[in-house]
């Protein structure tokens, strides 16, 4: 029995399903979760001392690689000054100024503790601002686990096949309307049916929770136009794409303006942070400036802020990181695609920037329905084959492969060669 197996057995007795978040359970790929002891650069080491080349990167924020010295040193210094004050600090002002001065349309920003909380609060602000109740979300997009957004959602609920979740009262989702990703007509129809009732459209500008599904040409500009025409707030959920596709996130990468943007862990360099920002007229609705209530003792936590400031400042000062990372992503995923296409398996490789996914289906994947055609058994075989070769991919078909600045081309070449062996073996 391995140490991870032993730990999992113990965990299952005291933690639901043995894990603190379902997507790390390895259930859908028929494996035991690896219990991680340390991480450095592009690698994580588990409780059995096995070192994996990691493609999860704490679900995105480790864009510089694990334990980046610039962040670690900032955190150590921060800890020496105390862990939490529940009071205002200069670091919060600095990080807000950095983001507002660099990212388009972010005129004000509020820190929270997770992406879930950021989205929940942004929706409330949009509703308070418009005086409307309904929201539009896209099937297969995931915006955290708050009640109103667990409607045909992606990520762990899609993996588990319970996209609407038990325990969510019908009343909480009655104002959540679902549209089809990459299908503007489906959104137009909802606006025609409820022209004065839709407060916001929320979208992952590049979907990354039904696997990676990039926006098709015209989709994001079309959403912008519809929201402007009908007076609804356009919310980009950039928990995954923010500060990853580029310093200006998906807004800059795709050249489309949002009214509100939500962020997650990348703002805290992997510490528990989220944020929502956007137009001043909307953010001015938030308490104590306005009547939309939202609060939190740990919001703007000084250690998390200093970690985030260190990483974001470094990224801003080294813009070539994004150029190199996106080039590396394009090369790697295109090579993976060639390998997949040369095999007898029917596969699709989707990618944008440093994010990508492999789907085992003959259908091009552009939305929830096509993502669901992927053969998840085959995905599980791929996952296990690669895990045996010490590659740690997300243990679900419906999550992204994350590259970081720490992955070298030589390491990625090795992945491609091992991947080729998988394709030849099935
Ligand atoms: N689902 C998120 C990543 N796509 C975060 C991981 C989690 O839920 O634990």
Describe what this molecule looks like in 3D:
The protein is α/β, with parallel strands linked by helices and 426 residues long. Helix content is 39%, strand content 14%. The chain has 15 helices and 14 strands. The chain is globular and about 60 Å long.
Brief rundown of the structure:
This protein is of the alpha/beta class. The chain has helices at residues 3-14, 69-80, 90-102, 115-130, 156-160, 170-173, 184-193, 219-230, 249-254, 280-283, 302-317, 320-342, 368-371, 376-388, 409-425; strands at residues 36-40, 43-46, 51-54, 108-112, 134-138, 176-179, 198-203, 233-237, 260-263, 274-278, 348-352, 355-359, 391-392, 401-402. The chain has a 7-stranded mixed sheet, with helices on both faces.
Question: Helix coverage percent of residues?
Answer: 25-40%
Which regions contain 5 or more consecutive residues with pLDDT less than 50? none
Taking the alpha carbons of the first and last residues, their distance comes to: 28 Å
**Overall mean pLDDT:** 96
Oligomeric form of this entry? single chain
Distinct small-molecule ligands in the complex:
(4S)-4,5-diaminopentanoic acid
The percent range for strand residues is 5-15%
Coarse shape: globular
Number of helices, counting only DSSP H or I runs of 4 residues or more:
15
Which structural class matches the secondary elements? alpha/beta
Number of strands: 14
Radius of gyration: 21 Å
Instruction: Give, in spatial order, the strands making up the sheet with the most strands.
Output: 4-10-9-8-7-5-6
Biggest sheet descriptor: 7 strands, mixed
């Amino acid at each position: 029995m391995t140490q991870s197996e032993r730990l999992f057995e113990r965990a299952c007795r005291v933690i639901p399903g043995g894990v603190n978040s379902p997507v790390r359970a390895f259930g859908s790929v028929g494996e035991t979760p690896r219990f991680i002891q340390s991480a450095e650069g592009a690698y994580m080491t588990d409780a059995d001392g096995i070192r994996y080349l990691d493609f999860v990167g704490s679900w995105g924020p480790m864009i510089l690689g694990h334990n980046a010295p610039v962040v670690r040193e900032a955190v150590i210094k921060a800890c020496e000054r105390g862990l939490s004050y529940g009071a205002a600090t200069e670091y919060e002002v600095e990080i807000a100024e950095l983001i507002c001065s660099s990212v388009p349309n972010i005129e004000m920003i509020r820190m929270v503790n997770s992406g879930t909380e950021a989205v929940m609060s942004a929706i409330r602000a949009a509703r308070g601002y418009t005086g409307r109740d309904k929201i539009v979300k896209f099937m297969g997009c995931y915006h955290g686990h708050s009640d109103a957004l667990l409607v045909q959602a992606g990520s762990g609920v899609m993996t588990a096949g319970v996209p609407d979740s038990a325990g969510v009262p019908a009343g909480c989702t009655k104002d959540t309307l679902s549209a089809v990703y990459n299908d503007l007509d489906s959104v137009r129809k909802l606006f025609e049916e409820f022209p004065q009732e839709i407060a916001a459209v929320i979208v992952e500008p590049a979907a990354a929770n039904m696997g990676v599904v990039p926006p098709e040409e015209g989709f994001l500009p079309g959403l912008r136009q519809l929201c402007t025409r009908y007076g609804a707030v356009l919310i980009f959920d950039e928990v995954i794409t923010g500060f990853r596709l580029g310093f200006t996130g998906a807004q800059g990468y795709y050249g489309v303006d949002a009214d509100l943007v939500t962020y997650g862990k990348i703002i805290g360099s992997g510490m528990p942070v989220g944020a929502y920002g956007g137009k001043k007229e909307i953010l001015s609705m938030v308490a104590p400036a306005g009547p939309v209530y939202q609060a939190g003792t740990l919001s703007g936590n000084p250690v998390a802020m200093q970690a985030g400031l260190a990483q974001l400042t470094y990224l801003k000062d080294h813009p070539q990181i994004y150029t190199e990372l996106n080039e590396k992503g394009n090369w790697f995923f295109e090579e993976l695609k060639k390998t997949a296409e040369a095999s007898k398996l029917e596969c699709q490789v989707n990618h944008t920037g440093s994010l990508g996914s492999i789907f085992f289906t003959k259908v091009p994947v552009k939305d929830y329905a096509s993502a669901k055609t992927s053969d998840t058994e085959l995905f599980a075989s791929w996952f296990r084959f690669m895990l045996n070769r010490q590659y740690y991919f997300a243990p679900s078909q419906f999550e992204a492969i994350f590259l970081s600045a720490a992955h070298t081309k030589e390491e990625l070449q090795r992945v491609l060669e091992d991947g080729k062996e998988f394709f030849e073996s099935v």
